[in-house]
Design brief:
The protein has 372 residues and is an alpha/beta fold. A hairpin with a 5-residue loop joins strand 11 and strand 12. Helix 4 crosses helix 5. The chain starts with a helix and ends with a strand. It binds adenosine-5'-diphosphate and the ligand N[C@@H](CCC(=O)OP(=O)(O)O)C(=O)O. Its main location: cytoplasm.
Length: 372
């Protein structure tokens, strides 16, 4: 019996490519019907559920008659555009059988890194949940390029869990959970039934995707659990082939791997900052500045900055690096890259002399700064 999930009222369910397709070609309608039925059960019990579903590329390939997954990005994008139609049509008809409306929500990285779009996405999802609609989320493959895509839907699932402050993220896949090593390669691997999300040991156990269908493998699921935990969401990694896995999990049954979040959660603004995978620039600090940020939770003053790279405006999100180049924090800057270069290493009292004006004494205020 596991009480952690019985208290979950808002849940993000991610179903991987391996579970929604027929060996990578076309959709497995029976599987989709099965997810819809289980989600309808949760909904009837009062839970709010968001579904993150892959499958667009596989369905698009089948509709276009392609036997082999293309490697060219524009062809994958074309397949995703064709296949997404089929994916939402299929879900729409499955959910309709349970008298539930479904909504298509396609997100990109940029949607979650821009504060205004992030807030819009959040309020739309909240509204859909209040209306009793099941949002079905996928990456907007058509407009993303290699550099800016999530690529796997595990990361997307975690960011959605952060976005709507979900209680739990359930990642369903083709394995029964996280094993001590990839079970496809190591027959002696054993199932990890419970661990703390973010435990570094888990990353060593996890390998890449087990088939040509899936993208991220176990590592992206472990990292997704770590990310989801930042807003307090627990993660379960379990097999989608397990009968009635969703209602059973919520009834407290121990199935798969439970990765627990500590009860500490960052406030929404800091959460948004921590979620920035893409940043506009970087500032490198000296050892003293790193120490006061870490141990005293202070604001970052220009005097502690040794280097500024990239081009950014006031209000942008930047990565904060320690003197060895390690990424240690995210922050919203009070000065542009140009201004920051001019005031770096200087005392705050010198800002006015250097720039001719002073907006704020600190480069990044502590309220706008989050340690990673
Ligand atoms: N430690 C591990 N425990 C379980 N599975 C692992 C592990 N390391 C790697 N894997 C592989 O990860 C695969 C699941 O990821 P993936 O293929 O991306 O599926 P999905 O499409 O569901 O995201 C499994 O089939 C398995 O081969
Ligand atoms: N957005 C892509 C799915 C990406 C993907 O395969 O992710 P995953 O299910 O995590 O292995 C699609 O719908 O085809």
């Amino acid at each position: 019996m596991n009480n952690v999930l019985t208290h979950s009222r808002r849940i993000v369910v991610k179903v991987g490519s391996s579970l929604v397709t027929n060996q990578g070609s076309g959709l497995d309608m029976e599987a989709l019907g099965n997810w819809a039925r289980q989600i309808a059960t949760l909904r009837a019990q009062g839970s709010e559920v968001v579904l993150v579903s892959s499958g667009a590329i596989a369905e698009g390939m089948q509709r276009l008659g392609w036997k082999k997954r293309p490697s060219a990005v524009h062809e994958l994008q074309a397949a995703a555009a064709v296949g997404q139609m089929g994916l939402v049509q299929a879900y729409e008809s499955c959910f309709r059988q349970h008298k539930l409306h479904a909504a298509q929500v396609l997100l990109t990285h940029a949607d979650l890194t821009d504060r205004e779009r992030y807030l819009n996405a959040r309020s739309t999802l909240r509204t859909l949940l209040i209306l009793g609609v099941i949002p079905i989320i996928n990456e907007n493959d058509t407009v993303v390029t290699d550099e800016i895509k999530f690529g796997d839907n595990d990361t997307l699932g975690a960011l959605v869990a952060n976005l709507i402050e979900a209680d739990a993220l359930v990642i369903l896949t083709d394995q029964t959970g996280l094993f001590t090593a990839d079970p496809r390669k190591d027959a002696s691997a054993t199932l990890v039934s419970e661990a703390r999300a973010g435990d570094a040991k888990l990353e060593e156990m996890a390998g890449g995707a087990g088939s040509h269908i899936g993208r991220g493998g176990m590592l992206t699921k472990i990292l997704a659990a770590k990310r989801a935990a930042r807003s307090g969401a627990h993660t379960v990694i379990a097999s989608g082939h397990e009968r009635d896995v969703l209602p059973r999990l919520l009834q407290g049954e121990s199935i798969g791997t439970l990765l627990t979040a500590s009860s500490l959660s960052l406030d929404a603004r800091k959460q948004w900052l921590a979620d920035h995978l893409q940043v506009s620039g970087k500032v490198t600090l000296d050892a003293g500045a790193v120490r006061v940020l870490r141990s005293e939770g202070k604001s970052l003053l220009p005097i502690g900055v040794t280097q500024v790279s990239g081009e950014f405006q006031r209000g942008a999100v930047v990565a904060i690096l320690d003197e060895t180049g390690k990424d240690i924090a995210r922050g919203l800057v009070n000065y542009s890259a140009d201004e920051a270069r001019r005031i770096r290493g200087k005392a705050s009292g010198e800002i006015e002399n250097t720039l001719g004006y002073v907006d704020e004494p600190e480069l990044i205020h502590r309220d706008n700064l989050v340690l990673l």
